[in-house]
């Protein structure tokens, strides 16, 4: 089976996670795909294949060289984003892309005028959607690359490597992917998530992240008799949203700039809930942002009465850079692997998060390498077959270089 067929098989599974769920994994359909992967890894001859009750799948490719070699790992998540449907994905291949518009289905066009990233892949073979669902390259492309790399190493014993551990997990898209990851069981000195974007991306800096839920209590009274009595939670929700700076949102920031992102509102006269995510690369600024949200709550209560507005803040993950910096050999190996695979490295901060951030703080240094997908979380998502092949080659080369790490 080649990498294209493997990836297309994976897209047939709906693995969308859910922020509204309290179960692990957050949706039972994720376990259906996890079980498929478990059987696939067993068929491919990997050792120590284990799927736990929470949907975390682990396996080993045994080493084939003598001497003490570090055990390293490769990780991807199999859930897809709640932002767009992942059901009944109709993927197709655009062979030898010519740089023009791509007709996904009637009336739906992916155009380089809107998505200039397409132009970096002229002459390549692109896997696209029909414009009604996401594709799932985030992160099933990563899974396909890891499995294909393990099969290649299995079949090419002339390439020496130590024990390689792989793991696939649920619920990364809702910030929960690493919560139940068993680092001790994984048993690696370091690892890599294959969860980045376009070719060459290497990320070991990410946002510090928190969620904030703002709860507003209103008082519902017949509007004809509401004077001095009604407290309209709808209006207070709008007022609270206006307190946060309009120029510090995802739409207005880039690079290392942080933001407040209003991800959802549920409101009626009697009660309202605003859900935010808070992001910043700088830890001090991150703490300041959380403090500012609490100050906005205080100001609202001073105007409308104590207890009218409350906040629930929860830290989600932190910037992995502080854990990677003391162990830069983990990065140096990737850079050398990319060089030998003729991939130009593009080191940049993640304007988001990755399971690797949480894993790094759990004692497993875990930077993020490109998986090749572009335009994640929406119907214009695509992945180049050649990009997936390059990612697979980088994985293989990292394994080979690691075998000589202590030479």
- H/I helix tally: 10
Distance between the termini: 35 Å
Element order, helices and strands?
HHEEEEEEEHEHEEEHEEHEHHEHEEEH
How helix-rich are the residues, as a percent range? Answer: 25-40%
> How many strand units?
18
**Uncertain spans, ≥5 residues at pLDDT below 50?**
none
- Name the assembly state: single chain
Question: How many strands, what sense, and barrel or not for the largest sheet?
Answer: 8 strands, mixed
Form type: globular
Sheet-strand content, in percent, reads 15-25%
Strand numbers in spatial order across the main sheet? 1-2-8-3-9-16-10-15
Give a nutshell description of this structure.
The chain has 407 residues and is α+β, with helices and mostly antiparallel strands. It is 30% helix and 23% strand.
Write the layout of secondary structure elements.
Layout (H helix, E strand, L loop, with lengths): L2 H9 L17 H15 L3 E5 L5 E5 L10 E6 L14 E3 L7 E4 L2 E3 L15 E3 L8 H19 L8 E6 L13 H4 L3 E7 L4 E3 L4 E10 L15 H11 L15 E9 L3 E10 L2 H22 L4 E9 L3 H4 L4 H12 L5 E2 L7 H7 L6 E3 L2 E2 L7 E3 H19 L4
Parallel strand pairs: 3-8, 3-9, 9-16, 10-15
Antiparallel strand pairs: 1-2, 2-8, 4-7, 5-6, 7-18, 10-16, 11-13, 11-14, 12-13, 17-18
Helix pairs in contact: 1-3, 3-10, 8-10
List keywords for this structure.
407 residues, eight-stranded mixed beta sheet, four-stranded antiparallel beta sheet
């Amino acid at each position: 089976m080649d990498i294209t067929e493997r990836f297309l098989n994976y897209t047939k599974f709906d693995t969308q996670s859910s922020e509204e769920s309290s179960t692990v994994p957050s949706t039972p359909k994720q376990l259906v795909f996890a079980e498929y992967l478990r059987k696939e890894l067993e068929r491919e001859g990997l050792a120590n294949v284990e799927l736990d009750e929470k949907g975390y799948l682990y396996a080993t490719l045994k080493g084939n060289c003598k001497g003490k070699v570090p055990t390293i790992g490769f990780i991807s998540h199999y859930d897809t984003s709640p932002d767009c449907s992942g059901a009944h994905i109709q993927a197709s291949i655009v062979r030898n892309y010519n740089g023009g518009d791509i007709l996904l289905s009637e009336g739906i066009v992916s155009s380089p005028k809107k998505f200039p990233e397409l132009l970096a892949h002229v002459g390549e073979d692109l896997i696209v959607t029909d414009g009604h669902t996401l594709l799932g390259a985030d992160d099933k492309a990563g899974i396909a690359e890891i499995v294909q790399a393990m099969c290649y190493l299995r079949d090419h014993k002339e390439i020496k490597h130590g024990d390689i551990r792989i793991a696939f997990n649920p619920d990364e898209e809702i910030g929960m992917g690493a919560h139940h990851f068993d680092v001790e069981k994984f048993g690696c000195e370091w690892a890599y998530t294959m969860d980045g974007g376009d070719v060459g991306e290497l990320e070991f800096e990410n946002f510090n992240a928190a969620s904030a839920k703002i709860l507003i209590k209103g008082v519902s009274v017949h509007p004809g008799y509401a004077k001095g009595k009604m407290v309209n939670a709808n209006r207070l929700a709008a007022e609270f949203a206006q307190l946060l700076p309009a120029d510090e949102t995802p739409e207005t920031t880039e690079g290392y700039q942080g933001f407040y992102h209003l991800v959802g509102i549920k409101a009626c006269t009697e009660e309202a809930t605003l859900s935010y995510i808070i992001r910043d690369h700088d830890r001090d600024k991150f703490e300041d942002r959380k403090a500012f949200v609490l100050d906005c709550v205080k100001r609202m209560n001073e105007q409308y009465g104590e207890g009218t507005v409350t906040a629930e803040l929860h830290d989600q993950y932190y910037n992995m850079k502080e854990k990677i910096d003391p162990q830069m050999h983990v990065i140096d190996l990737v850079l050398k692997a990319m060089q030998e695979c003729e991939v130009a490295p593009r080191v940049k901060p993640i304007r988001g998060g990755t399971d690797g951030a949480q894993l790094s703080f759990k004692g497993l240094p875990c930077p993020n390498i490109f998986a090749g997908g572009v335009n994640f979380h929406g119907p214009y998502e695509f992945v180049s077959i050649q990009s997936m092949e390059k990612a697979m080659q980088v994985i293989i080369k990292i394994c080979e270089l690691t075998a000589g790490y202590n030479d």
